[in-house]
Write a structure and sequence with these properties.
Length: about 210
């Protein structure tokens, strides 16, 4: 089941959200994400939160949380979506605002991988996925011209990039000195191979 989860970070560009809504079979709002759904004319199937950032809706299914909790609202949405059968989750309205929230939201992509669920975090300019190591194939997309690989571990070894403007072969990339940003697709399909280490692959449109 394709699931869209709307977070509550600041957002004012909604075209990409509407596109994701058409892709989704099921839509969940994390607390204040309901205001983004309303701005897009989207009716969520489920709203989860402690409602510390907005009014609790009364026209859809709601799971109310206590404000004092270990998991973020977005993590609670993620766990419930998986429980209900999500096998692919896209996050939107999740990248603006507080940096601690944004970094926490990015970490959910690794959590999804551990659960066997495909995940992507999107905003109007970026598409982010988790790379667990090994070889991953990507289709070149004119809407996302640039490709960046951001190490999550202290270093990535055995990094090989094929089909990109700036290739690498069996390179080591450290988190303290990243040389794998602002690349571009040079073929209809490109591959990112990581011998050891984990990374985020970020496709951007400028």
């Amino acid at each position: 089941m394709n699931t869209l989860i709307l977070a509550s970070a600041p957002e004012c560009e909604y075209d990409y959200v509407r596109q994701l809504a058409r892709w989704a079979d099921y839509i969940v709002c994390a607390d204040g994400g309901v205001r983004h759904a309303a701005a897009c004319g989207i009716r969520p199937d489920l709203v989860i939160g402690d409602f510390d950032s907005g009014t609790r809706p009364d026209d859809t299914e709601v799971i109310a949380l206590r404000p004092e909790k270990d998991d973020s609202d977005l993590m609670c949405c993620t766990k419930e979506a998986i429980r209900r059968g999500a096998d692919a989750i896209a996050y939107a309205c999740a990248s603006g605002g507080r940096i601690d929230h944004f970094l926490c939201n990015l970490s959910l992509l690794e959590y999804l991988h551990g659960c066997g669920v495909r995940g992507v975090l999107c905003d109007s300019r970026n598409r982010v996925t988790f790379h667990p190591g090994g070889t991953r194939r990507y289709r070149a997309d004119a809407a996302y011209r640039y490709v960046g690989i951001i190490p999550l571990d202290a270093q990535l070894t055995g990094v090989t990039l094929c089909g990109l403007k700036y290739p690498l072969t069996d390179a080591t990339v450290s988190r303290a000195h990243i040389i794998t940003i602002s690349n571009e697709a040079a073929a209809p399909e490109y591959t990112v191979t990581i011998g050891e280490g984990r990374a985020l692959v970020i496709e951007s449109n400028g």
